[in-house]
Amino acid sequence: MLDSRPPNFFHAAMRPPENLYHQNIADDHSRSSCSLNRCNLSPWIIGSEEFQANPLPVEIDGARTTDARLFRRLGEIADPEERSRLFHDYVCVKFGLNEKIERNGKSRPAYSYVNLLRAWGADSNRQAGAVLKAWVESRFGILATYHNGRLAEDAAARAAFTLDRMCGAAKSIGTLMQLDLLYTFCQDELRRRWPGARCRTLYRGTHDPEEYAIRDPGRPGGDPRAMLVQLNNLSSFTSDVEVAWEFGSSAWEVEVPLAKIVYFSGLLSKTLLTGESEHLVLGGYYNVRRLLC
Questions:
Q1: Between 194 and 208, whose confidence is greater?
Q2: Which of 268, 275, 292 is nearest to 116 (CA)?
């Protein structure tokens, strides 16, 4: 069984007045500041650079307690593949994912968290991406910063994001609660598979530096390749540095807290976001290190 007691990490420096994420959402008048969420830590903590250095456990309100029997049963199973099958079967039964639904006069399978993850893998700036980013805003309070353009500066991008999340939500009713269970299951699996770890070293390649707000290049410790970056509220990373270079002319190495990993390659089906060793990671501020070719 997993130890549910939170580790005693030092986090006295996590004070809102000095926190860049807190300041950023307070100053961003283009969208409503997200000061509330549905988990045990405030947005300004989860989205801060201090959290990267001193991570704490994150729990979505009600996700574990509502389905306590599921998580107790998962804790009794030693084989990770069997745990994955049980989790997916449970979600399918609870949300009727094997049933057909009528839409526009046609009978189709119910839309699920699996559809969202696969669509994200194809293009994170379309409807599925908007639904996932909206889920992050709702549960963790971290605002999306990019969706076909920087949302703080581009009115057309904000309008497209709103439309995509509305259209996506209309066909994905119930998926947000599925994502709550997925995140909780992912957190348990990370602790099982990497016991004692607080972070994982992940990589991200990019061709689009304009997607990010980059502050304080050359930090910390005078490293010219280090910088502080504000990432979108949900971003793709890889655990394979060679794969990162396939996705951009520049690549970053990042220490990502386990608590900010929503999904990782190998968590579920071997056909789901596995080819690129992909990880879905909550955004906010990160100290990153630019890699050399």
A1: 194
A2: 268
Please give the single-letter amino acid code of residue 84: S
Each residue's pLDDT tens digit, 158-187: 999 999 999 988 888 889 999 999 999 999
> What's the one-letter identity of residue 206?
T
> Which phi and psi (to 5°) does residue 236 adopt?
-95, 135
Instruction: Record the pTM.
Output: 0.87
Q: What is the pLDDT of residues 228-278, one digit of tens each?
A: 888 999 999 999 999 988 888 889 999 999 999 999 999 997 666 666 789
- Compute CA distances 175 → 146, 168, 170, 288, whole Å: 22, 10, 11, 32
One-letter-per-residue 3-state SS of the chain:
CCCCCCCCCCCCCCCHHHCHHHHHHHHCCCCCCCCCCCECCCHHHHCCHHHHHCCCCCCECCHHHHCHHHHHHHHCCCCHHHHHHHHHHHHHHHHCCCCEEEECCEEEECCCHHHHHHHHHHCCCCHHHHHHHHHHHHHHCCCCCECCCECCCCHHHHHHHHHHHHHHHHCCCCHHHHHHHHHHHHHHHHHHHCCCCCEEEEEEEECCHHHCEEECCCCCCCCCCEEEEEEEEEEEEECCHHHHHHCCCEEEEEEEEHHHEEEECCCCCCCCCCCCCEEEEEEEEEEEEECCC
For residues 154 and 147, give the distance between their C-alpha atoms in angstroms, rounded to a whole number.
Answer: 10
